[in-house]
Amino acid sequence: MRNWLTCLADLTIPFPVLRFLRIQIEGDKSNLRVAVDTLVKIISLTKPALRTFTRTFLLVKEDNEWKILRCYPSAQELANALAAVSDETEHG
Question: What CATH number labels 15-91?
């Protein structure tokens, strides 16, 4: 019987390339936006489709280590910014 680590070593899993779109560091806080292109299976299509997923990570430095405080789709960041502008316009 083979060891599970040996089995994993035999697998070839394509890992998508991670692209850093933005890195902002202000003291002990950081904002990081990344994108990854990956193939996804869509029921209505016979072949997988290439999709780009973007995520924004909010990080905080604690005990000299960066830790993820929050992670969300980057589209949410745009929605929040538009809502903030809308609020400012109404109250302005």
Answer: 3.10.450.50
